[in-house]
Amino acid sequence: MLAESGDHAAAAELMDQALDLAPDWAGGWDLAGSFHEKAGNVAGAIAAWRKLEALDDEGVFGARLKLAAYGAGPAGQGTAVGYVEALFDQYAPKFEDSLVGKLGYQVPDLLDTLVSEEMAKLGIERFGKVLDLGCGTGLMGEKLRSRVEHLEGIDISAAMIAETARKGIYDALQKAELVATLNARRADADLVTAADVLIYCGALEPVLAALVPALKPGGLVAFSLEEHEGEEALFLRPSLRYAHSPTAAREALIDAGLEIVRFETAVMRYDRGLPITGMLVVARRPAAEMIAANDVPDGGDVAA
Fold it and tell me: Which CATH architecture has domain 96-284?
């Protein structure tokens, strides 16, 4: 009640008293950290999250990320699987109402426009197989459905999978971590989409290293990133979402062997009334990949 009325300092004080009586209550330390943070007491928040980190073996409260966002620890390079899974399991029933209705989320529409434009340029009427990573409740899948023969949705959250299954959008749904899923595939996707997914994954390089071999030669990938203009390749925001440098993102795409088709900036959604700017990316796996000269036997011919 104190927190809901805006008195976060008093809420934090009361929670600290409760934790004196229940020191092993992980959820309590999470709340205490949140209240201290909103009251402007960063030191108190960090102290609470350090207690939380020691109690949260599965990482579902995201203590490591919260500490990293305030410079009190390393963020790591990969997805905080326990935290992201728990976050979206909890968020699933109200996901669309909150994200679309209240925050003006429009990434699926924006990515779909870019994909449609590239289909027209390439003369593609329909895709054979599409993987929608982090499919959530199917917002991206709804845009793609009419132009896809086989549409597969992959999400780390069982609750999200259950929500989208009711819509009947996808030909197949799988609860899985995206890098592991991509590593199990070889050149079978005509298009891979990831709408507001890689913002939870940290470094792009491991994702792209798994993604490129999963694409057919000539296949497309379309995804979004949040943007920051600092010198770092990526930056963990207090929202616990990663923002990427446009320069570093471009370099990661090129290093992964992808051709950049579209790279645009747009407002993705609003957060606390402020616009969140991001990048919309469409890239292609080259249709014909050159064979290295040292892989060709002496006297052999290299086919174009």
Answer: 3-Layer(aba) Sandwich (3.40)
The number of CA neighbours under 13 Å toward the Cβ of 32 is 25
- Does residue 295 register a pLDDT over 50? no
* CATH domain 8-74 topology: 1.25.40
d(CA 161, CA 184): 20
The arithmetic mean of pLDDT across residues 55-67, rounded, is 89
- The pLDDT score that the predictor gives to residue 294 is 37
Rounded average pLDDT over 103-113 = 90
What is the residue-wise DSSP string for 120-144? HHHT-S-EEEEEEET-TTSHHHHHH
- CATH 3.40.50.150 residue spans of the chain: 96-284
Are 234 and 202 in contact, with CB atoms under 8 Å apart?
A: yes
pTM score, whole prediction: 0.84
- Which residues of the chain are in CATH 1.25.40 domains? 8-74
Q: Which two tokens stand for residue 87?
A: 């976050």
Helix pair 26-38, 8-21: axis angle to 10 deg: 160
DSSP bridge pairs for 152: 131, 172
The structure tokens listed for 253 are 């795409």
The more confidently predicted of residues 172 and 300 is 172
Q: List, for residues 182-231, the tens digit of each pLDDT value.
A: 999 888 999 999 999 999 998 999 999 999 999 999 999 999 999 998 88
| Cα–Cα distance, 206 to 242 (Å, whole number) | 15
CA 33, 245, 115, 180 torsion-angle sign: negative
